[in-house]
Design brief:
mainly alpha, Fumarate Reductase Cytochrome B subunit, two-stranded antiparallel sheet, about 5% strand, disordered C terminus, binds protoporphyrin IX containing FE
């Protein structure tokens, strides 16, 4: 298991960040969509607190991921990939990074301007607000809510296109683009090569008899003596 990426593979740190963030975004989006449709009673508060805490965790992971990326190498594009496609993939990845920041930041901003309860990360660490409500901008809360929702759906569209391209590369172009990002523990194991059968029957008698052992030579004996 290699922590750093190479010219042909992603390292375990890059894979960890990628798949942990994907998983958390799936949980986060689902919880977000469920909680906004729940009746506004005290029972909904733990859902909101959970959503905000997971969202802040995604933001922290995105920061760490980008810092790690500054020190890590990026594997080369597959040799069969046309230049325009490589440029498109890079632009798509850059957009995903921007959204990984903007979606949680917009949620944090919405929470700050709606002046609800103080924000705590899993009830442990107090998180300061990003500004506050502005009396001269009565619509600010609605604007922030709209931005958070819009950015979330933009992320869904861009990430779906990105995942589709990864699948096309893997299964149509067969250039292992998904395989090299796939966690090592989930990689398919290579089929074991069958070993030649070992026979337990006794060895057949040698066809040629072994040469006779020569008589010991007395080093003191002279030739012909
Ligand atoms: C990647 C991270 C995040 C994702 C994917 C996400 C996703 C969502 C989604 C899908 C909704 C429902 C939108 C709707 O249909 O109205 C939502 C609502 C909400 N999010 Fe997030 N969110 C994230 C981060 C955050 C963060 C960090 C906070 C606050 C610290 C936050 C606070 C909220 C709040 C308060 C709502 C409720 C809005 C309302 O009452 O209408 N979110 N989020
Ligand atoms: C919320 C969902 C997702 C986000 C935010 C996301 C984000 C990213 C980002 C930013 C990169 C570029 C990494 C870098 O250059 O440092 C990347 C690479 C990659 N992603 Fe995703 N991703 C998501 C979902 C998926 C899914 C579902 C798949 C697979 C079906 C996938 C497959 C890949 C692959 C194969 C690469 C490496 C591409 C290459 O080697 O050029 N991603 N992803």
């Amino acid at each position: 298991m290699q922590l750093k990426s190479g010219t042909q593979h992603w390292g375990s740190a890059a894979k960890f960040f990628h798949w942990t963030i994907v998983l958390l975004i799936l949980v986060q989006g689902t919880v977000g969509l469920i909680m906004v449709d729940m009746p506004k009673r005290p029972a909904v508060i733990p859902w909101y607190n959970f959503h905000k805490s997971v969202g802040l965790t995604i933001l922290a992971l995105a920061v760490l991921r980008l810092l790690w990326r500054a020190f890590d190498q990026r594997p080369a594009e597959p040799p069969d990939m046309p230049h325009w496609q490589a440029l498109g993939a890079r632009a798509g990845h850059a957009l995903l990074y921007v959204l990984l920041f903007l979606v949680p930041l917009s949620g944090w901003w919405f929470d700050s301007v709606s002046s609800l309860r103080p924000l705590y990360w899993f009830g442990l660490i107090h998180v300061p607000p990003l500004g506050g409500p502005d009396p001269s901008l009565p619509d600010l809360k609605e604007v922030a809510r709209g931005r958070h929702e819009f950015l979330f759906w933009t992320l869904v569209v861009v990430a779906s296109g990105h995942a589709l391209m990864a699948l096309v590369h893997q299964f149509v172009h067969r250039n292992n683009v998904l395989g090299r990002m796939w966690p090592a523990s989930l990689q398919p194991r290579p089929k074991p090569v069958p070993l030649p059968e070992i026979s337990h029957a006794p060895d057949p008698a040698p066809a040629v008899s072994a040469p006779a052992v020569s008589a010991p030579v007395d080093p003191n004996q002279r030739d012909g003596a």
